[in-house]
């Protein structure tokens, strides 16, 4: 018997109000100078890095680079963004930029212990320094031959 009364009340509310009852919610105030269709809110640094990793795995370096740069712009102290920037620059053949990004990654890690334990970054830095040093020597020897 109670369920019949309940259904009757629901039907009365639905037909009396002209549709389903919707709770009134306070809408956030919109700024007049912002176009809601064209405004872009960048994702968090972690989300940008996640998307950048997707592109990096597919060797789409330009797309990955823009995502990692967006992550750094969003949060300049987010260390993983610098590590991934180093990987992208290395993939693009920009060794000096890769080296700088890896060093910045080590600087932004929350503790010295994390920086010491980051073997991947240390190996990349050593490899890039060696490549840059050998390239510097080979370009210097070529200039003396000319």
Number of helices: 7
Helix fraction bin: over 70%
Termini separation (Å)?
A: 103 Å
Order of helices and strands: HHHHHHH
**Shape summary:** elongated
CATH class of the domain at 45-135: Mainly Alpha
Question: Approximately how much beta-strand content do the residues carry?
Answer: under 5%
Structural class: mainly alpha
CATH homologous superfamily caption of the domain at 45-135 = Tetratricopeptide repeat domain
Largest sheet: none
Task: Give the overall average pLDDT.
Answer: 80
CATH topology of the domain at 45-135, by name, is Serine Threonine Protein Phosphatase 5, Tetratricopeptide repeat
Number of strands: 0
The whole-angstrom Rg is 28 Å
Poorly predicted segments: 141-146
Using the 3D structure, state the CATH architecture of the domain at 45-135: Alpha Horseshoe
Question: In terms of quaternary structure, what is this?
Answer: single chain
Question: Layout of SSEs?
Answer:
Blueprint: H1 2-17, H2 45-57, H3 61-74, H4 79-92, H5 95-108, H6 112-117, H7 119-145
């Amino acid at each position: 018997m109670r369920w019949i009364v309940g259904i009757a009340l629901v039907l009365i509310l639905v037909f009396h109000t002209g549709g389903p009852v919707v709770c009134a919610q306070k809408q956030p105030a919109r700024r007049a100078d912002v176009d809601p269709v064209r405004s872009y809110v960048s994702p968090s640094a972690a989300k940008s890095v996640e998307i950048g990793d997707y592109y990096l795995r597919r060797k789409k370096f330009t797309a990955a680079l823009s995502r990692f740069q967006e992550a750094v712009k969003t949060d300049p102290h987010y260390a993983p963004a610098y590590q991934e920037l180093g990987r992208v620059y290395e993939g693009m053949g920009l060794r000096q930029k890769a080296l700088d990004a890896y060093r910045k990654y080590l600087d932004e890690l929350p503790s010295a212990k994390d920086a010491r334990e980051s073997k991947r970054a240390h190996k990349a830095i050593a490899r890039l320094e060696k490549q840059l040093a050998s390239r510097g020597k080979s370009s210097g020897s070529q200039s003396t031959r000319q």
